[in-house]
Predict the 3D structure of the following.
Amino acid sequence: MISENEVVEKLPDIKLTHLRLWVKRGWVLPVKTKSGYHYREIDIARLELIRQLKSDMAVNNDAIPIVLSLIDQIHGLRYELKTLGRAVEAQDKDTQAAIVEACASARISRGKRG
């Protein structure tokens, strides 16, 4: 973990005032300690994403939480799919085949409903 001063050194396009504002808005959730906020690698990645959204893509402040929420949901779904994939891989071949067949049937029936 790194301090907010180290974040600003590492990400020179992000000013300390912006960093603190983004934390206050809840866009980034660093670990709070007695000596201040400390940022993990995931926080650094999120800060860079916010900077890109604002600077490179001109996303306004009202849209930032929506974009971040959608990205968080995508990451959550990816995690769940990986977990499900591992669970399926742990099953015997007949069970795996039954799951694949059930998925294919579900896709077909969903396609018929529109």
Observations:
- The beta strands are 2-3, 31-33, 36-39.
- The chain has two domains: 1-59, 61-114.
- The first helix runs from residue 4 to 10.
